[in-house]
Design a protein that fits this description.
By secondary structure, the protein is mainly alpha-helical. Helices cover about 70% and strands about 0% of the residues. It contains eight helices and no strands. The chain is elongated and about 65 Å long.
């Protein structure tokens, strides 16, 4: 979202951080509310479904972002993204833990956290590659159509660093470059929409385990034993 704000909207780094607030200010509260609701209902499956539905819709709406998108539309799209990711943050972890045997809960949790971190890393890397390839393709098309001067030779791997000097471009060139950034970023969301949709379809196969169970792990037993011994002393 930072590169979207700095390139398409030609905002400064500080302004771009402010533009990202609709996501950052909704993700954590939504995660907390979702966690409380799942704790009270002792069910997680509906939360997972709802999270993936909202996230898929948000990714689809992000494909509509362009230099002509209004501020209200942009904020609305980002709030949806924050809500979707916020719901999934605790819901997926509950899903990973609910069906495990007591002695496997710790392994399931650590494996889930590792896979989620790995997925975030691959997501950033894939997004960068998609953006760079689409940028190079769109740039070649714009130069061939004479909508950009042939001297504008910025490869895709340098496009994110070029946002700081966009305001130095002539107005007509700047307008074309804004659309170049927008169209290149759109390819990322087009790629992630079906991934989110597939994740939702796979979540329909989840079993509806109850969260109402006592964890009788070895650690819990030893802690109870130590407490009992202390009480006797």
């Amino acid at each position: 979202m930072l590169i979207q704000a700095q390139s398409v909207l030609t905002h400064s780094t500080f302004q771009a951080d402010i533009d990202a607030l609709p996501i950052t200010l909704t993700t954590a509260p939504t995660a907390a509310i979702a966690g409380v609701i799942m704790t009270l209902t002792l069910r997680f499956r509906l939360a997972v479904w709802l999270g993936w539905i909202i996230l898929t819709i948000a990714c689809g709406l992000f494909t509509l972002l362009s230099p002509t998108t209004t501020t209200a539309e942009r904020i609305g799209y980002m709030i949806l993204m924050g809500v979707g990711t916020g719901i999934l943050f605790p819901a997926l972890q509950f899903a990973a833990q609910a069906g495990q045997r007591d002695e496997d809960v710790g392994f399931a949790t650590s494996t889930f956290v590792f896979i989620r971190s790995l997925g975030q890393t691959f997501g950033v890397a894939l997004g960068g590659v998609i953006f760079q390839n689409q940028w190079d393709k769109n740039l070649a098309t714009d130069i061939a159509n004479n909508t950009l001067p042939a001297t504008f030779q910025i490869p895709g791997n340098e496009a994110d660093g070029a946002v700081l000097s966009l305001l130095q471009l002539p107005p007509d060139v700047l307008e074309t470059v804004k659309w170049l950034y927008s169209d290149s970023l759109r390819a990322i969301w087009i790629f992630f929409v079906p991934l989110a949709g597939i994740a939702f379809l796979l979540s329909l196969l989840m079993r509806d385990y109850s969260l109402d169970k006592v964890l009788n792990s070895k650690q819990a037993f030893e802690e109870s034993k130590s407490a009992a011994e202390s009480a006797q002393v």
